[in-house]
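Protocol step 6 of 9: fold each sequence in the batch and record its structure tokens directly after the sequence line. For illustration, a two-sequence batch is reproduced in full.

Sequence one:
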Amino acid sequence: MALRLEQGATILGSQGLADYPMMPTRVAGIEMSWPAALINVYGEHDAEVSGAGTIDGDGKVWWDSYWALRRQYDSRGLRWAADYDSRRPRLIQIFNAKHVTLSGLLLTRSGFWTVHICYSDDVHVDGVTIRNNVGGRGPSTDGIDIDSSKHVLVEHADISVNDDALCLKAGRDADGLRVNRPDEDIVVRDSTVRDGAAAITIGSETSGGFRNVEVYNIHAFGHVPSGVLFKSAHTRGGWADNIRIHDLQLEDVAIPIHITMNWNPSYSYAKIPPGLTEVPPYYKVLATPVPLAQGLAHFRNVRITNIKATGAQTAFEVSASPEAPLEDFRLDHISIQAQTAGKVADANNWTLSDVTIRSADDSQLSFTESPGLQLSGDSGVAPREQP
């Protein structure tokens, strides 16, 4: 089946939640029922959605309802639940599908994630333009989320959103560990990020792991706080292996190399408040304890090369944990102009070659709990561990 929208044609989403039937899917890392997307390629194969037309979610009603709920939940210790209780339709869902092409369209004002590729194989996204910050800044309006899928190519995207722009995900906590499906054989290339959380994000849903990922030729500028962003939490688990990121141009991106394994604790760690007994089943799924040995993510065999960043605030902000350090990273041919160099912690067997940091405060990049460090041809990098 092919759905083609010619220039001037627009599909406009309803603002009535009843028009989006509930269906089994995965949302923000857990399997649950959720309103259908505006466009759904669900359990199908050999499908195409393409053209020069527009798919418009008319999503401000969903953004406003989310912020109203957040104001109530933040004061009750339920920040983590707001994203699941505020049911907002995605724009395009490609779920449990094979051989799917999405190309050429303008995608705008999504109520929630814009393009969600989940449990799918052989998906090609080419030449889409995403503009979600129209008439406001929609929360969680991710651009393209690749979720526990394989053989996915994303190219020639032009993205302006208010959360992750180009993002790889693989499940959350106990439910993600149960499903245990990785993202693998993924290529993201030749794209522009004008507004969003990062040029490229892996996580924070890391439970199923990531294997054989290549990201290159990404230009990020404007409202983009991070360049390369890896994020997880102590209950996520999972792993990353053979990740290659190269040829990124970052302008006024605050933190070009940003890695945290304890991301956003108020969202990442679900705990049902005492006395709250009447809760939906997915609260119990989210709050299922994960043993520490399973909960730590293990990132290894990562190569980051040919990165040029100007106008940064902090060149490196990197931390993991001594129990699960970031292992065997190689960083080559990196040039960063920043206010300060920053720091790296919990990094084993890192190799830095031709890494140049020009910091306005004359600081040097410092390393703690980072054995096996090898430096060559570097400027602005401290050769020994700093307290």
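Sequence two, same batch, same settings:
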Amino acid sequence: MLKAISGTIAARIITTAMGLLISVIAGHRLGTSGLGSIGLIVLGITLVRLAMDLVGGSALVYLVPRVSLGRLLRPCYLWALMAAGVGYAVVDFFRLVPDGYSMHVAMLAFLQGINAIHLSVLIGQQRIRANNQIAVVQAVVLVVAFAVLARAPDADAHAFVQAAYLSVASALVLSFAAMRKRVPVLGKPPASVLKLLIRQSTYVQAANGMQLLNYRLAYWLIEKFQGTSLLGIYTVANQLAEGAWLVPKSLALVLYSKISNTEGMEGQRLLTLTFLKVSMACATAVVAVLLLLPSSVFQWVFGPEVVGISPLIGLLIPGILSMAASQAYSHFFSGTARNIHNVIGSGLGLVVTIGAGLALIPAIGLAGAAITATLAYGTSTVYQTIAFMRITGSRFIDLWPNAEDGRRLRRMFF
């Protein structure tokens, strides 16, 4: 398990670093306006992908050992095509991305969705290393291609779109080649694959959809009330702060697998508490480093137009730490078939995001967006904490680190 965790964390470090390099290149070559446009394009792709993942994701991973690959992939491909078509209509009608990019957003979402299906198959086939390698290759190709294309004198966000096509094409070729086409099927396959895929994913995608809006609704509000240039500054601050989730998210994947295979509430409770404390410690270390860096460093790295990053990170930090804890709670609820609590937590956070965002972002700009994010993340995590303690009988003192946590970690990893 230690090898799987270290490989996944290493892959996430590389892909996160590549994402920051995209912002560095865009900040210097395209300015804050280009950063803002790229942020909206990526958000549009993520929104369309959300509907695609209704058929796939964790449900697909579960079904890979139980259904023949040919029978499993057909409904996933068809659903991805339909979702891309509907997504294009929604993105274009509501003008969620800059003019001229709606079709590119839908096409990139479709291609990335097909690649995500292949990667889920790899995970279901326990090909974690191949999954990580393809993700790294895709990120590296994106950065290299964008660095070359952005050097053109008249470069704009189209350079990022062209680089995205190249990166997802390379990942598609690798992921298709890596899949093992014939895998023995365990047990009797279900009668309706599509029905089971949708049923397995409904709660998960409902929570993911609301959580996506918690993370990114502020982008659209900033663009509407403050402009694309200020949105570019906020995307950099948000991306840096969310870097604190790198280890918590990697650990959460392992926690989900462990809890799903652990019998008894007490064992699941102790696992969750241990992973929760490790996640919080790692996230705190990252945000402490970010706080120590002056704004001039961020301006030097991301470009002269990127100013005022440190105050924004300071406002985001309480929310970022809250969501680091939420990673553990969310995967406890998923691993114990209590996804409804993830839906409720995300829903409460979304209510706060809408209310606070509409009140604060027009009034105080980027600071209002950061405060909104912290309030929303905190609200969601407070609900999850209460639900976890009620279900497991835990006490507040159990949330503090103790010697048994260290012994439990050594047993799990070594």
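Proceed to step 7 once all outputs are recorded. Observation for sequence two: The radius of gyration is 21 Å.
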